[in-house]
Amino acid sequence: MRRKDLGETQIRECVTEALLQLMKEKDYSAISVGEIAERAGVHRATFYRHFRSKEDVLRDFLSEIFKAAQENKELLHSGFASFIRPVFEALYDKKGPILLLHGAGLSGLFMDALKDYFDFHEEEKEETSNSERYSINVENKTSGGGLIEKYSTAYRIGGIYSCLLLWFAHGMRETPEEMTYIAASM
After folding, report:
1. What is the pLDDT of residues 73-116, one digit of tens each?
2. Distance separating alpha carbons of residues 57 and 68, to the nearest angstrom
3. Is the CB of residue 102 less than 8 Å from the CB of residue 81?
4. Which of 176, 26, 39, 18 is nearest to 95 (CA)?
5. What sign does the CA torsion over 4, 14, 23, 49 have?
6. pTM above threshold 0.85
């Protein structure tokens, strides 16, 4: 049954739900875009107007989860635990689909979501030559370019990502409060 007169948000939700349902039934790699579109009740062309691939559907799904956590992002200034707890809570609220993604070997998608949450961009904005780069004192770069801060953020993202993988492997049996405590203790 084809759905008509759906708004963009509704189409995205239908496609996401269709993909998650199909992932419960069969291996992710065996799911086609045509199957997703059919299950969602939209044309294949409609799918491609909103998504480039089935991975794009899942990235969008994770983005929405992390957007819910971002409402409390300003809490970073009150401490790391207050900043990261909404992430654990938002993921825990979607425990079933999250474990489904992990079980399908798609946990790598969480790294991109974490980078977005932390507003982390790997490229440096100002170009310096190799000789300049290595001659610049690290302390000087911390005030101007934020080198230490950038590496610190990358380190935290990697640590949180590793904690997420272990949490998923445990079936997310630890509560968001316990995970916040664990992440903030490191």
Report:
1. 555 556 778 888 999 999 999 999 999 999 999 999 999 999 98
2. 17
3. no
4. 176
5. positive
6. no
